[in-house]
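protein under study:
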Amino acid sequence: MNVIEVKGLSKTFKVKTKEAGLRGSISTLFRPDYKTVEAV
């Protein structure tokens, strides 16, 4: 007997990505790039 049943559950997060080095850090401040990560 199941007490809780879940269908179609999902969670996504937006994560900033940056290039290596000082130049990448500065460019991310003005033009951030986001990558979508699915958690569930």
